Amino acid sequence: MAPEDRRTRARPGVLLAIGVGGALGSAARYEVALALPREAGGFPWATFLVNVTGALALGLIATLVIERWPPSQYVRPFAAIGVCGGYTTWSTFMTDTVLLVREHRAAVAGVYLAATLGCGLSATVAGIALGRLWPVAQRRSADLDLQPEPVSAG
């Protein structure tokens, strides 16, 4: 299969990993929402919490997968796209913001918007920093086959 074909067609195993991860992440987000229900006009703590902790987790996972661990075709789709994608929620974040404005709580909406973006960015940076504390894994000989062959001049 040519490289361009791999980008346009998802492999069934990868789709399964994303789906299972997404189901787990979505279930976790639902549980957080049940534990921290939003009062009308109140700060949406559940959505804030999942988005900030999800940003931390995604920064950590992406760093481990890209910089620290040997190549794997399923870890990133499962954990980063599936779990973190199902756990975090941009759409609920935006909906909560609009609802706060409609409830005449523009100040709370502004604080929520700024706090989510600022804390989310900080959490991502912290996740990356934590990931870089992890030792670099030794690549197995089978993983070396994934590296391109050096080109000889002659």
Descriptive overview:
This protein has 154 residues and is mostly helical. The protein has helices at residues 3-8, 12-35, 45-68, 75-87, 90-102, 106-133, 141-144. The protein is globular and about 55 Å long.
Instruction: Categorize the overall geometry.
Output: globular
What's the number of helices? Answer: 7
How many distinct domains?
1
Rg over CA atoms, rounded to whole Å, is: 20 Å
Distance between the termini: 29 Å
Residue share in β-strands? under 5%
What summary fits the major beta sheet?
none
Mean pLDDT: 88
The count of DSSP E runs of length 2 or more, i.e. the number of strands, is 0
Supply the helix-strand structural class: mainly alpha
Measured as a percent range, the helix fraction is over 70%
Element string (H = helix, E = strand)? HHHHHHH
Low-confidence stretches: 141-152
